């Protein structure tokens, strides 16, 4: 650390003295000293990096062998001693401890010491849970119980171990012999402590699925005391049903010996496997609290088995169910909301009339907003639906914009206010007023000298992890750092990240700080040269392509979605392969998409392909990039060339795609503003097209 502080000090001195005399021998000497210092720091770091990787290799070899080697560990210890000032010393300590854990070559004292010294790593890896398992295996009940009181939330396995230890302690004290008692049909004596333990186990058994084997003795004793009642089995079964725990519910049924209870459990299993069985369940089962819970939860699944465009859509049969099962007013309301959500777009005139009447009665914002979007693409009256919105929802920029559109007398005043805000609808308001859309950016402070010293160890750690391409690990350290920082510190740290080209971390910093107005940090000029290179001879602007990447990945080059979209521009492997073939570009597999340059190369090529289909129209290109061209075709077919730009965007039925298009257009403009490009809110093709 001293060398690095000296380096900063020398740099400051060099800058100050250089203003006095450019030819001074002292400056040349200082410059040479600075360069030498920099080279020494770099060489030292490179040497440490090699030793760190070697240490990890030795640990992995031990793990692969499956046994602890004193000879290898001796070398690990020597390497560790050479790395005490290496930025990743915490990672070294954890790697050593983790290997010893895997090989059962560690004491509880070592674990407890590590937890105290490195709380973030310990919490992340749930290290405080390990001593319980170790003491349990050693049957050290008193140590286990004393320690468990200091631990926060226990895992299910460790809760079993704690209670098993309590049970064993009580059993030893009371000299319990469950086998003999069961054979002779004798009652077992219960101490107050044991009775309390069994009461706790009641709730635990009901609220968890299959329990670990460490609970077996206590569970058997609890059962032998006659505490596994029919009502408790039913309570557990309902909870398993609600969480869709099919395997656990099946196991519960297999362990049951009661014939009538078995029939009920079989009905539950059938209802879980076949949601449309609900109507038969309702006909067969009596009204009670547990069956009522099942009916309430099963209704949503049941509705999904019905086709959206079914004929004779009618809530009346379900109103009868609601009365039969004595549903409360709020529960009936929830059923109606679910019913309307399922059949909202049903074209039966009688249903549509009933739907609109129910919307006026329910005043449920999610349904009212959906009806507003329908009214927009149908070009019908909006005021009827706007008045139904709650004050909070009505205050959204989107609905203020549409209020202005539907009430000409208030339009100018509403648009003037909207245009002073940040976002897509303020942009539309400025466009409608025919005035430039202005952005006011807050000042961004750098880290102070004191803050730099405070955060330096963790920032060095992040830098080294990123140098080793361990981006996920670096992000974890970054999040830990941000969690302990104030708002102003988060902003300064995000600015620091931006200066290091840690684009994804800068963005993450603004997310954690909720610093939505700090656009230069939220939208860094990431990989600018590579975008320019790959956009040559393409009719796609750099700001638009960067806006797509920013929306897709927040500049996380390792991002991977649940649909397996990968990298900066979130390309599906199939799309990447097709794009590469069509454009004579290189693509060898998913790994290529984790490379920023290749991802940008393929992503921009795909944007250019979409531009061929939707020339100079970012709205349709962005919608197709997100939801697929086939869906865009469907939405355009529905609109039938009748909608203006704002109407088409507002009526996109997918929440994700609608927000995606709005964000991309806003980000594009922000990028233009931030990096001195020609300001274009919307292109002529976008504005004048009828969608």
From TrEMBL:
Residues 453-519 form the Lytic transglycosylase superhelical linker domain. Keywords: Signal. InterPro entries: Lysozyme-like_dom_sf, Lytic_TGlycoase_superhlx_L_sf, Lytic_TGlycosylase_superhlx_L, Lytic_TGlycosylase_superhlx_U, Transglyc_AS, Transglycosylase_SLT_dom_1. It comes from the Bacteria. Residues 535-640 form the Transglycosylase SLT domain. Transmembrane segments: none annotated. CDD domains: Slt70-like. Pfam families: SLT (PF01464), SLT_L (PF14718). Gene3D superfamilies: 1.10.530.10, Bacterial muramidases, Lytic transglycosylase, superhelical linker domain. GO terms for molecular function: hydrolase activity, hydrolyzing O-glycosyl compounds; peptidoglycan lytic transglycosylase activity. PROSITE patterns: TRANSGLYCOSYLASE. Residues 1-18 form the signal peptide. GO terms for cellular component: membrane; periplasmic space. GO terms for biological process: peptidoglycan metabolic process. Belongs to the transglycosylase Slt family. This is Lytic murein transglycosylase.
């Amino acid at each position: 650390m001293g060398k690095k502080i000296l380096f900063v000090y020398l740099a400051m001195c060099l800058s100050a003295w250089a203003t006095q005399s450019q030819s001074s021998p002292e400056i040349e000497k200082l410059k040479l000293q600075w360069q030498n210092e920099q080279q020494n720091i770099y060489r030292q770091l490179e040497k440490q990096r090699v030793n760190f990787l070697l240490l990890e290799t030795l640990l992995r070899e031990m793990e692969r062998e499956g046994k602890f080697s004193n000879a290898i560990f001796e070398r690990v210890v020597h390497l560790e001693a050479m790395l005490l000032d290496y930025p990743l010393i915490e990672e070294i300590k954890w790697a050593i401890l983790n290997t010893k854990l895997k090989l059962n070559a560690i004491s509880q004292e070592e674990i407890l010491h590590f937890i105290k010294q490195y709380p973030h790593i310990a919490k992340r890896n749930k290290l405080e849970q390990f001593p319980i398992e170790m003491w349990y295996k050693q049957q050290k009940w008193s140590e286990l119980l004393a320690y468990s009181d200091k631990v926060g939330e226990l895992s299910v396995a460790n809760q079993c171990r704690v209670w098993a230890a309590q049970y064993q302690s009580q059993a030893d004290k009371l000299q319990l012999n469950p086998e003999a008692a069961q054979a002779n049909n004798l009652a077992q004596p219960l101490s107050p402590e044991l009775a309390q333990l069994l009461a706790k186990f009641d709730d635990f058994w009901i609220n968890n699925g299959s329990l670990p084997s460490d609970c077996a003795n206590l569970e058997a004793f609890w059962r032998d005391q006659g505490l596994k009642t029919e009502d408790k089995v039913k309570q557990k079964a309902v909870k398993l049903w609600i969480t869709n725990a099919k395997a656990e519910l099946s196991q519960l049924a297999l362990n049951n010996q009661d014939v009538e209870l078995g029939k009920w459990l079989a009905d539950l299993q059938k209802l879980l496997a076949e949601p449309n069985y609900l109507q038969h369940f309702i006909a067969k089962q009596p009204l009670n609290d547990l069956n009522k819970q099942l009916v309430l939860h099963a209704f949503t699944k049941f509705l999904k088995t019905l086709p959206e465009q079914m004929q004779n859509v009618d809530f009346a049969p379900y109103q009868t169910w609601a009365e039969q099962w004595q549903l409360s007013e709020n529960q009936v309301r929830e059923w109606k909301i679910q019913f309307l959500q399922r059949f909202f777009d049903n074209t039966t005139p009688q249903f549509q009339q009933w739907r609109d009447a129910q919307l006026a009665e329910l005043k449920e914002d999610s349904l009212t907003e959906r009806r507003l979007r329908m009214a927009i693409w149908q070009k019908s009256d909006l005021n009827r639906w706007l008045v139904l919105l709650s004050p909070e929802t009505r205050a959204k920029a989107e609905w203020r914009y549409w209020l202005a559109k539907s009430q000409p007398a208030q339009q100018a005043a509403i648009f003037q206010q909207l245009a002073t805000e940040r976002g897509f609808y303020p942009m539309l308001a400025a466009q409608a007023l025919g005035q430039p859309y202005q952005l006011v950016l807050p000042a961004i402070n750098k880290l102070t000298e004191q803050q730099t010293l405070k955060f330096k160890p963790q920032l060095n750690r992040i830098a080294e992890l990123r140098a080793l391409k361990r981006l996920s690990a670096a992000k974890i350290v970054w999040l830990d750092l941000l969690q302990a920082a104030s708002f102003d510190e988060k902003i300064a740290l995000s600015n620091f990240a931006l200066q290091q080209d840690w684009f994804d971390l800068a963005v993450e910093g603004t997310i954690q700080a909720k610093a939505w107005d700090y656009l230069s940090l939220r939208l860094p000029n990431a990989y600018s040269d590579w975008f320019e290179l790959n956009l040559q001879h393409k009719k796609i602007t750099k700001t638009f392509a960067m806006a797509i990447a920013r929306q897709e990945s927040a500049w996380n080059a390792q991002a991977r979605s649940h649909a397996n979209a990968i990298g900066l521009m979130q390309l599906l492997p199939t799309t990447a392969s097709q794009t590469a073939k069509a454009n004579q570009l290189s693509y060898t597999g998913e790994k290529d998409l984790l490379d920023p340059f290749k991802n940008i190369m393929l992503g921009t090529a795909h944007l250019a392909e979409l531009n061929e289909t939707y020339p100079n129209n970012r709205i349709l290109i962005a919608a197709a990039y997100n939801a697929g061209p086939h869906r865009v075709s469907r939405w355009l077919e529905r609109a039938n060339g009748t909608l203006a730009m704002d109407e088409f965007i507002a009526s996109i039925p997918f929440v994700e795609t609608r927000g995606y298009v709005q964000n991309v257009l806003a980000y594009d403009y922000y990028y233009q503003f931030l990096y001195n490009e020609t300001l274009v809110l919307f292109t002529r093709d976008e504005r004048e097209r009828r969608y």
